Amino acid sequence: MPQLNPSPWFFIMLASWLTLSLIIQPKVLSFLSTNPPSNKTPQTTNTTPWTWPWT
Questions:
Q1: Could you read off the pLDDT tens digit of each residue along the chain, which spans 55 residues?
Q2: What is 9-52 written as a DSSP string?
Q3: How far is CA 46 from CA 4, 30, 43, in A?
Q4: Residue 8 burial by CB count (10 A; 0-12/13-18/19+): exposed, middle or buried?
Q5: What does the alpha-carbon distance between residue 36 and residue 40 come to, in Å, rounded to a whole number?
Protein backbone atom coordinates (compact mmCIF):
# COMPACT_ATOMS: atom_id res chain seq x y z
CA MET A 1 0.00 0.00 0.00
CA PRO A 2 1.80 3.15 -1.17
CA GLN A 3 0.03 5.54 1.23
CA LEU A 4 1.87 3.89 4.14
CA ASN A 5 5.25 4.76 2.68
CA PRO A 6 6.11 8.24 4.05
CA SER A 7 9.16 8.69 1.86
CA PRO A 8 7.78 10.81 -1.03
CA TRP A 9 4.83 12.35 0.83
CA PHE A 10 6.81 13.58 3.81
CA PHE A 11 9.25 15.45 1.56
CA ILE A 12 6.39 17.02 -0.42
CA MET A 13 4.64 18.11 2.78
CA LEU A 14 7.85 19.49 4.26
CA ALA A 15 8.80 21.35 1.08
CA SER A 16 5.35 22.88 0.68
CA TRP A 17 5.21 23.91 4.35
CA LEU A 18 8.64 25.56 4.16
CA THR A 19 7.72 27.29 0.90
CA LEU A 20 4.53 28.63 2.41
CA SER A 21 6.06 29.78 5.68
CA LEU A 22 9.35 31.20 4.41
CA ILE A 23 8.51 32.63 1.00
CA ILE A 24 4.80 33.14 0.45
CA GLN A 25 3.67 34.21 3.92
CA PRO A 26 6.00 37.23 4.33
CA LYS A 27 5.07 38.46 0.84
CA VAL A 28 1.35 38.21 1.54
CA LEU A 29 1.65 39.80 4.95
CA SER A 30 3.50 42.78 3.52
CA PHE A 31 0.49 43.59 1.29
CA LEU A 32 -2.15 43.20 3.98
CA SER A 33 -2.45 46.13 6.33
CA THR A 34 -3.64 45.50 9.83
CA ASN A 35 -6.17 47.75 11.49
CA PRO A 36 -4.29 50.45 13.35
CA PRO A 37 -5.63 51.31 16.80
CA SER A 38 -7.91 54.28 16.71
CA ASN A 39 -8.42 57.03 19.27
CA LYS A 40 -12.15 57.24 18.72
CA THR A 41 -14.38 56.48 21.67
CA PRO A 42 -16.81 53.64 21.10
CA GLN A 43 -20.37 54.75 20.58
CA THR A 44 -23.01 53.23 22.78
CA THR A 45 -26.44 52.78 21.30
CA ASN A 46 -29.54 53.02 23.38
CA THR A 47 -31.65 49.96 22.96
CA THR A 48 -35.22 49.58 24.07
CA PRO A 49 -36.33 46.26 25.49
CA TRP A 50 -38.79 44.27 23.48
CA THR A 51 -42.26 44.17 24.96
CA TRP A 52 -43.75 40.77 24.39
CA PRO A 53 -47.54 40.78 23.99
CA TRP A 54 -48.05 37.66 26.14
CA THR A 55 -46.27 38.88 29.28
A1: 556 777 788 899 999 999 988 988 888 888 766 677 778 787 888 888 888 887 6
A2: HHHHHHHHHHHIIIIIHHHHHHHSPPPPP--PPPPPPP-PPP--
A3: 61, 40, 10
A4: exposed
A5: 12
